[in-house]
Amino acid sequence: MARIKKHRLKQIIIRISLFVIIFALVFFGIQFFTKTGIFRIPGVVYYDESLSAEELAILENIFTEEIDLDKDVTISAESSHEKPSLEEGEFLYSVKVAIADFYDTRENVSEFAENEYMVIPIDDLQFNQKLLTIDGEYYLDTFESGAIFRKIKFESEKYQEEIAPLVEEAFTKEFPEKSSVLSFAQTGVTALSRGMNQKLASVGGDATYFAENIKEYLSSFDLTHTSNESSFTDFANSNNICSDKRFINTLLAIGLDIVELTGNHNQDCGDQAAIESIDAYNDNNIKTVGGGKSATEAATPLIINQKNNNITFLAYNLSTGGATYDNTPGANQYYEENAVAEINAAKNRGDFVIVDIQYYECSAYASTYEDRTCDYANSSAGDQVGFFRHLIDLGADLVIGTSAHQPQTFELYNNGAIYYGLGNLFFDQVWWPGTTRSLILENYFYKNKLLQTRITPTVYDSSMQTSVMDKETAKWFLNRLISERP
């Protein structure tokens, strides 16, 4: 019996041993073929040669020796002049733009001539630099081109489980987009009056005629401004600075959002016309600044809170008339103590401050030749340069002259920019070359900061239809103005 028991015990031990051996073979075999357990090979990080030294440094700081990956990851980069579509594991790492000196009149560069211009990250762009188009594409207009877009790509079988938690915070970045950049076009003098009243009759009363060549351009901005110094009335004719009531359609055609009323002619047609004109603006959701139905209303700053930008827009009359001092309509008279208080209040709120000034007019006109007297900031009274600079010293960020009937020079001053005169956007004086031109300031704001002001000159002829100036003429004209800066 003892022998039988020993034999059975031996068989049991053999069977158990075989089971253990088979189990071990299967267990370790699976690990061997699946590269798990003791046979596991850790994931490897492969850096493509397309990565820059800066990018490598950031990545190597993330994928340290302590990081234990299960699967390999390949990291690469790619640059293009078109904004890339992003898929899983892809990030827009940088947007770089071409710039020049603020006073450089170049507008465009070629993507194939990168040694001819400076390239900086969009985050470093400042208003005192000039953003250039790349092959005709302006980044702040399209946000899809006009820049060098850099994409980083992570490829891994376990991207979501392993790679995303490591890289998404570092590589998810925010760049200026149409939804976050406020575009604001500021234009010069508008006076749809005198000869334009006569022209309106000859074109069948269609006031959109005058805006035909520029309406698509101006209405493309988030905000469009003009300084209109002519009120609407039934008594407009070819001799007075009064506007036929149908001219409201000219302003609507350009998508006008803000009308400045600092002009010295809005009372030419009487108080009732001025009041009814303000009502017409209100009825068409056009905000007013620098003028109103009373002195109190005229002095009320325009506060713009849009796309996370906070702007205080102040506008004053320091001219030959048109201001209101009581409960009658008119322009906002400039008083030093008021300007100081309003600018300080805006700066304390953290607002960007724009100050528009209806200053004493530079009155140098010539019938047939180019008179350059007004290119320089030269008025018929007072120190125009000193006064405009003083407003910057008070804390204004951007100072603009909206009384000049001929475009004037511009400059950077301290921490701000000054545009001494924008000229005529819509006007009837076709016989003097200077009065047929204007400057449109395309302001781009992002996170309460002025990224850029792009200057676009305009011109009209005997048709009285305002158009964007052709590129060659615009370059010549801007060079002329720049040469006269203080």
Brief summary:
The protein is an alpha/beta fold. It is 27% helix and 29% strand.
What can you see in these coordinates?
The protein has 486 residues and is an alpha/beta fold. It has two domains: 45-171; 181-482, Purple Acid Phosphatase, chain A, domain 2, CATH 3.60.21. The chain is 27% helix and 29% strand. It contains twelve helices and 27 strands. The strands form six sheets. Strands 9, 10, 13, 14, 24, 25, 26 and 27 form an eight-stranded mixed beta sheet that branches. Strand 13, helix 8 and strand 14 (287-289) form a beta-alpha-beta unit. It is elongated, with a radius of gyration of 33 Å. The relative contact order is 0.10.
SSE layout:
Layout (H helix, E strand, L loop, with lengths): L1 H33 L10 E3 L5 H10 L10 E10 L7 E12 L6 E2 L8 E4 L7 E3 L1 E2 L4 H4 L2 E12 L2 H13 L9 E10 L4 H8 L12 H4 L4 E6 L3 E2 L9 E2 L3 H6 L4 E3 L10 H13 L3 E3 L1 E2 L2 H4 L3 E5 L2 E9 L5 E2 L5 E3 L3 H13 L3 E7 L25 H11 L3 E4 L8 E4 L2 E4 L4 E3 L10 E10 L2 E11 L7 E2 L2 H12 L4
Parallel strand pairs: 1-2, 4-7, 9-10, 9-24, 10-13, 11-12, 13-14, 17-20, 18-19, 20-21, 21-23
Antiparallel strand pairs: 2-8, 3-5, 3-6, 3-8, 9-25, 15-19, 16-17, 22-23, 25-26, 26-27
